[in-house]
Amino acid sequence: MPAKGQHRKPRSLNRLTRVCIAAGTGGAALALPLVSVAHASAAEPAKAPAASAKAHQYTVVRGDTLAKIATAHHVKGGWKALYNANKKVIGTNPSLIRPGQHLTLNTAVAKAAPAPAKKAAPAAAKKTVSASGYSKPVGDAAIGTPYHAEGSNWSSGYHTGVDFLVWSGTPVHSVAAGTVVHAGADGSYGNDVIIRHADGKYTLYGHLTNPVVSAGQTVASGQEIGISGATGNVTGPHLHFEVRTTPDYGSDIDPVAYLAAHGVTV
Ligand SMILES: [Zn+2]
């Protein structure tokens, strides 16, 4: 299997990847920037004009690599510079970083940020439930990478969901009533929530800062299920929204068409 397409690999493959990274293979870390950069070019709006370098603190989370962090936060000089600036914390092996470590990031540009989602009142989003009981996953937000965008960076060759450009911290809502089948860490998807609906379809909400529901919980259409973020394999905050016919990766269908069929236009 191609060692790429982090964003889109089945969970089982992600686990394998994680094991490789944990084992400290330099190759795994080196391979990541290509993936992330490619995703970024498609997923993100134009970057803000270069701003003066700024130092930020970052806390390593599970699944991170220096390359991933460097790409996600636009670290000047990439992962090597990030490593050099944090050798005291990281130690002699740049491919071994641990959750909880505090790194100093020298960002070269202002954080590439999605079009600002109007601080849409969550209440407003809840009111937009369609006649068929469906609603938007986030308030008014532009779409970044569309469904089926092609790219060799994805193992299946295309984007399995649609990306909504929202800042971290934006409330994310279930598009319909259903039962939470997963809430938490999910490889390249970061923290995600997967919900099974009455029609047998599943919706997935990826890269969340954190879910606010747990597996087994019943949710209503428009109910807040998590807070958007930039966890997993991303280069900037956004909501990856996916619709599946089974709980498994690869059974995706067009999420925009799915919502439209239920009276919701995004
Ligand atoms: Zn996506």
UniProtKB/TrEMBL annotation:
Q: Which UniProt keywords apply?
A: Signal
Give the PROSITE patterns listed for this entry: LYSM (PS51782)
The organism sits in which domain of life?
Bacteria
Q: Would the keyword Lipid biosynthesis be found if you checked this record's keyword annotation?
A: no
- Which residue ranges does the record assign to the LysM domain? 56-105
Please name the InterPro entries in this protein's record. Answer: Cell_wall_metabolism_enzyme, Dup_hybrid_motif, LysM, LysM_dom_sf, M23ase_b-sheet_dom
**Signal peptide location:** 1-42
Under Gene Ontology molecular function, one entry of this record is: metalloendopeptidase activity
Q: Which Pfam families match?
A: LysM (PF01476), Peptidase_M23 (PF01551)
Q: Does the keyword Signal apply?
A: yes
Q: What is this protein called?
A: LysM domain-containing protein
Q: Which organism is it from?
A: Actinacidiphila bryophytorum
* Lineage of the organism: Bacteria, Bacillati, Actinomycetota, Actinomycetes, Kitasatosporales
